[in-house]
Amino acid sequence: xxxxxxxxxxxxxxxxxxxxxxxxxxxxxxxxxxxxxxxxxxxxxxxxxxxxxxxxxxxxxxxxxxxxxxxxxxxxxxxxxxxxxxxxxxxxxxxxxxxxxxxxxxxxxxxxxxxxxxxxxxxxxxxxxxxxxxxxxxxxxxxxxxxxxxxxxxxxxxxxxxxxxxxxxxxxxxxxxxxxxxxxxxxxxxxxxxxxxxxxxxxxxxxxxxxxxxxxxxxxxxxxxxxxxxxxxxxxxxxxxxxxxxxxxxxxxxxxxxxxxxxxxxxxxxxxxxxxxxxxxxxxxxxxx
Length: 289
What we know:
Blueprint: H1 3-10, E1 18-22, E2 31-32, E3 36-43, E4 46-50, E5 53-57, E6 61-65, E7 70-75, E8 80-86, H2 88-94, H3 96-99, H4 103-106, E9 111-113, H5 116-133, H6 141-163, H7 169-177, H8 185-196, H9 203-210, H10 214-225, H11 229-247, H12 252-258, H13 264-275, H14 279-285
Antiparallel strand pairs: 1-8, 2-7, 3-6, 3-8, 4-5, 4-7, 6-9
């Protein structure tokens, strides 16, 4: 489904690169999205399949669907929701992947629950974007939407970090503020860490792929970001573990095996060193913010 298809289904203006609709129409059966969709539910439930995995959207659930993902959704009769559709050059300029570190989490848990506290902020963001869309004569409409969308994604990312009790503020600062140029070594390092850090926690693994001496790579990363490469790897890894403990239902042992720790004990020591909690203690505190 491309942006034009979506606009046609929902009677929206395809010349606009942003559409906000309430209880909009989505294709029946499986479809592949070619633009960014944010779906926020506020009543009822819907079974959602994303890239072959099954999830359930309930009241105050949010899901971000990105280009290339295979989606199918089966809502019940009470399901009410809001959709933000971001297409064309607006989606390109927004560059969701670069402004929303939490997509790292959403790759594995693409449906997240929003607390009642943050729900008010989400409603305000959506309302503000609805107002901006109506100002057709505003020459700064696109700039206003970009600012609001960036604020929405950054705020949601911070909310999820906070709900996970993630304390790696430097990681958030680096990934939200670092100029991510694809031909840059540090950018390539960060992308590799995002992809492999669940199971690969050694700096030498990344140095081999990038064809650098580990010490030189570490010095380069430190010089450009102010933080060590190993610190970034560890923080991405523990962030993934936090997401698994918060949003998933696997046991600590299953998570330890999935992340390829030598033993559950090693996983527990790593997790406690990074967070101050044992995995089980952390799981009991999730969303208590």
